[in-house]
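Example record for the data management plan.
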Amino acid sequence: MKDNLKVSVVINNYNYGRFLPEAIDSALNQTYPHTEAIVVDDGSTDNSREIIGCYGQKIIPVFKENGGQASAFNAGFAASRGDIICFLDSDDIFLPEKVATVVEAFASSTDLDWCFHSLKWVDVDGEPSLNQSSHKSLSGEYDLRAHIKTGKLKDKLPSLPSTSGLCFKRSLLQQILPMPEAKTIGLNDAYLEFTSIGLSKGLILDKELALYRVHGSNAYVKSKDKRVPARIMILTAYWMRVKFPDLSKFTNNIFAAGLGTFWRTGGVASECREFVKNYLESATPLEKIEINARAVYHCVKL
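Corresponding structural encoding:
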């Protein structure tokens, strides 16, 4: 891999003006020189746009109407020019050596198309979180394409990070993005992670290269409310099946997990009912039997 590869840091922001300068500064202060910072403002109503304007030509601003995180990913990627894309939530912070480490990781093998790394959890002030240990993973190369096509990823993969731990080669993202957009219930990093795993070989680093800030607006990560991940599973399964039908055995499994969780917690959320209906209509009779059986299992075991 060439030493002068360009890296795009795509920052997605919505009403996080109080955190945004730290995120932008962390992208601009990388030790790797060939880095551009793209800041996508998803229709903020706070002072985010004024903050972005203060950076002038140091960054590439993208201003858009509010459309959800998936639309911000799409807009940021469309504006990027990098050979490698690193996503950053605007309430998180990259460590200075993040991009250099990722470039070096991709250079270790020519057939690696994605790189996920650990995150250090911090509180609203950027101090180490007392309520959550740092995100840890098992380092190594992973080629799980055969496993995901058979629907069997259990025990094959460590826990995956959120947005700020995700990095991709441009050639891979061109197969995945643009991703379907929805303002009220949208796709998130899970769609990027699982589609990447289904399409290519990658690398997981047990290195905390970014700070993941836990605060009121995103505290659902610590919540015991099972309906939030259920929504994510249903939507991810639906669109993965639509876009990548050869991964349907895997999507059936996560769809069933989401469906069973909804059954156990009061029924399918109204915004997910149409997705559930359409998914089941696209399934074969045998698939429906298997999905319902798995959903019952997940419902009972919760």
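Summary line stored alongside the record: Residues 7-222 form a domain with the Spore Coat Polysaccharide Biosynthesis Protein SpsA; Chain A fold (CATH 3.90.550.10).
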